[in-house]
Each structure stands twice: as C-alpha cells, then as structure tokens.
Amino acid sequence: DPKLTFDLIRNPDFGSPRLSSWSDVEEIRLVDGDKYKLEVVYGKLYSPALSNLVGDIIPYHVWNKAAWTEEAIRKERSAEDLGIDPEDYNVMRALPVSERDFRHRPSSSGPMVLEPLNGEARPLWKSAEIATLRRNEFYWERQPEFEFIDYLIFDPALGRETSEIAFLSGNMDIYTARDFQVERYRGMSDDYYVLERETTTYEYLGFNCRTGPLANKRVRLALSMAIDVGDIMKYVVYEQGQRISGPAYPVLPWYNREYKREYTWLTGDKKGKTEKLDFIPYNVQEAQAILKEEGYALDSSGTLVKDGQPFRIRLVNSSGGGARADIALLARQNWQKMGVRVDYEEYEWNVFIGQYVFPGNFDVVVLGWSGGLNFDKRQLFHGKYAPPRGLNFVGYNNPKANDLMDEILNVYDPEEQVRLSHEIFASIADDCPYVWLFSPYSTSVMDRRIVWRKQVGTNPDGSAKLEDRPVNSDYITGAKASLSFFVTEFKRNEQAPDFTEEDRKR
Questions:
Q1: 20, 138, 228, 486 — which has fewest CB within 10 A?
Q2: For residue 13, which of 100, 85, 101, 96 has the smallest C-alpha distance?
Q3: What is the pTM of this model?
Q4: Domains and CATH numbers, the chain
Q5: What is the number of other CB atoms lying within 10 angstroms of the CB of residue 20?
Q6: How far apart are CA 362 and CA 36, in angstroms?
Q7: Which residues, at least 6 apart from 416, have a Cβ–Cβ distance to it below 8 Å?
C-alpha cells in the first residue's frame, strides 16, 4: 500500500498536489524478507523528507493498475471503448481520480470504519443522510471509547441553522460553531465547552502574476492596500481568526512574526516618511498614488486608465456563498471605489478549479490553503511548480525566493530552518502575490457531559490506565493536531463531571 501510494504521488498523470515534494526521489523499493519495511532513495539531500513521508495511505487492492482498468472497462472507458490504440492507452487519463468509485466506497485502516447503509451495496454513504462509522476491531492501537459515531449530513437547501437545532436539542454532541455564534456559546459555559483552536489554514486573494497589470508588484501592492482587511475580520469572520502578513500559518514556527514591510508614504501627513509596517494598511488615497506612479490616471468617469485602456480585472470565485462570497463582495466594492472596473464571476467548485484556477484563467481568485506542516513552499510559490507540476497557479516567480526555497531543503539544523523560513516568508510577502487575509480559528462546542479519557499509564495487567479530564484541557486546546485525533478518546457521561481548574491544567 505505501509503495503504490508513493509511486502514484510521483506520477504526473495521477495529479497529486504533492508532486513537488517527491521530485528528488529516485527510487522506492520493497525490502525482501520484511513486509513492514520500505526504502525511499533520494537523489540529493531533502531535509523535510520524514514529514513528507507521513500521510494517508491508499489501498493497493483498489488503486493498482488492474483494479483501475477493471473499473474503466465497467464504465466503458477502456481503450476499445474510446477508440485508442492499446499501446497509447493510459487508464489514469481515461478514468481520472475524481471519477473513480472510491469516494462512494472508501476503505479505512483507522480506528473507525464506515458502516454500510445497505449491506455491501454501493454507495456506502449518501448525501443528506447519516454516515455511520463503526469501531475497527482490528485497529492496531487503543480502541475508541464508543462503538459508533454518527455524522449528521445536512442538506444545504435546509439552511445551516438545521445543524444547530439538532445540537441544541441533544441530537448532536459536537458542533462546529459558525463565526457569529461563538460569543453566544461563550455565554452558555455552564452547559457547553467552547474549544477555540488555531488552524493550519489561511485565506487569501490570489493575483495572476504572469501578464498584464498584475505582473507589476506595485500594482498588486496598491490593490492590497485598497482592501480593508479590518472590515473583513470584524464583519465577515467576527474576529474569529488571526490576520496574517505572509505565506504561513501562525500556529507553526515558519510564520515570521517579526516581519515588517518597509514603506515610504506618498500622501498625507506621513508623505516622504519611511515606516516599517506590521500589515499592509487600508488606504485608498495611498493606493491611488501608487497607481499614479505606475502610469494610471482617473478619467472623467472616475475610472483608472493607462495608455487609453481602463484598468479592468476579472475576479473569479467558487459559488456557494459563505465567507469567501463576502470577501469577494468587499474586494469588488473597494476596488470599484478606487476606479478599477471589476468583472465578477462565480462557478461551481469543480468547474472553478478545473477550468479557471489551474489553467490561470483569472486575474484574481478567492481561495485558501489548508494543511502542509513543513517549510517546503515550492509547490505553492516556486517558479517551476505551476500546474500541473504544482499549485503555483498564480504564476509567481522570484529567483531569490526560488533559491531560498531550494537552499532550505539542504538544511537540517532546526534553528537555521526557522531562520531561512522567515527569510522566505519575507521575500514572498514583499512581492504581494496574494492579498494575505487571515488564518481562521476552529471552534468546537461540546456538551459538558463529554469527557476526555486520557491514558496516563499502564495497569499491571497491561491494559491502559485511564483518567477522565475535561475536553477543554490545556493539552487539547494547545495541541497543533486536529481535534479529530482526540475524538476517539472522548466519552459521554450521564452527568457533567465537576472538574477543577487543576484538572484542566494537568
């Protein structure tokens, strides 16, 4: 299973976004006589190798070439069906990953496995119903404290309020609070725990840096300066996040908290003064002054024009509403006030990604990044990792940043890794390939009857020694791991325990 997983990641036809992390791997081989051992051979030093080797494993019995081909034949995607010479047939292209049955019939080797809705009939789960997970009796580590988990899947057409009603009526134990609900639940602390945790996620507006006006980083700076991120924090996410100034998650050491942008003011009381700024300030007058230096001027209609052409951008977003729709609305309004003509387009997610984001068919996109715990940022920002080789779909390319991103891969000293990461952060942030917005908090609300059964040792008979702790334990709230890593150790009591402050800190 691991060998096939790694082989597929390295295959461009598989379309893995992690391809750049495996570009230096020369060979992956099984070890004769040891079915639990695998050797990965790198052609040169690659310091984040161990962290990249950790991840989800896909099952060989589903993803090997024979199984893939069998499914393609069943779906009439064989070489014969498509009229392709068998010598030229590529099953990954004929039946892309996104169209395979695995999402309807997933396999799992974790602590919980999917409980079929109707025997072994496909699919094993269905939208707008309950997806049930069952305790995996073959799991190698500690068994979950419960036998089943029910995930309630709500039909979006019914409105998101439906899930909160189910929670408040006692039909759900854990509820992910929406940003505007968090303060209300904080006022209900006698009944609920409110767990606010930092995430490995950030939101941004991405500029197409390849051609046109946005290839100029000063134009990108001006557009960034015309976005009121403070308003987004206050009115869109209700302060449920941290504002960011560059390409990293604040929860990780690679985020450069010391970064300051050096800027010389063109207007106002500070004209001519140079300051070091924590964040790009919201200042429309200053943004217009930057654009004036780059050759733009307002015509009689209030439109910014250069060489007789209006400054026009296409802002592309996914449909479905939510915070990104609000961000797009504020961006559009702010840029239009400054004199930029904005054509706004929305598309269904798969169309948005496949036909607009990856091909670079946009001027600005509204997106976010999630995951990726090490310091290797090549797939997002290195010049050679534009799609399909990577995820640098904004076309950002800075030789200095490229060199730094290559250099850090040879560094194994932790302190030097942090130093270089901060230098990479500053180099990219200075160029404004994105409007850096915020890293959201993840806030879970739980019934106070739920406890964390923490393993604190081993009993004389070899069984786990367990103690009940509050789920808002400092250990859980301060952990960088997802809350899902702890859920299998949660248990619901008949009554809410009377924990002390000392219990929370232990």
A1: 138
A2: 96
A3: 0.85
A4: 201-441 (3.10.105.10), 448-506 (no CATH)
A5: 22
A6: 47
A7: none
Tokens of 272: 């001519």
Interacting residues of 370 by C-beta distance below 8 A, sequence separation 6+:
199, 200, 201
* Strand (E) or helix (H) holding 149: strand 148-152
pLDDT cut 90: percent of the chain above it: 67
Closest to 121 in 3D by CA, of 139, 104, 134, 103: 104
Pairing of strands 297-298, 201-207: unpaired
CA distance 91 to 68: 7
Q: Which residue has the tokens 């854990």?
A: 174
308: CB partners within 8 A, 6+ apart: none
Q: In angstroms, rounded to a whole number, what is the distance separating the alpha carbons of residues 496 and 272?
A: 62
Q: How far apart are CA 447 and CA 472, in angstroms?
A: 11
Q: Do 408 and 417 meet the contact criterion of CB atoms below 8 Å apart?
A: yes
Q: Which two tokens stand for residue 351?
A: 């169309």
Say whether the peptide bond before residue 388 is cis (omega within 30 degrees of 0).
yes
Burial readout 237-248 (b: 16 or more C-beta within 10 A, e: otherwise): beebbbbbbbbb
pLDDT at 118 over 80: no
Beta bridge partners of 445: 175, 194
Chain CA centroid to CA 268, Å: 39
d(Cα 176, Cα 190) in Å, to the nearest integer? 18
Query: Rounded to the nearest 5 degrees, what angle is found at the Cα of 163, between the Cα atoms of 157 and 168?
Result: 145
List % helix, strand, coil for the chain (3-state, nearest 5). Answer: 35, 25, 45
Widest pairwise Cα distance in the chain: 85
Partnered with residue 122 across adjacent β-strands are none
- Look at 64-68, 172-176, 295-299, 311-315 and tell me which has the smallest mean pLDDT: 172-176
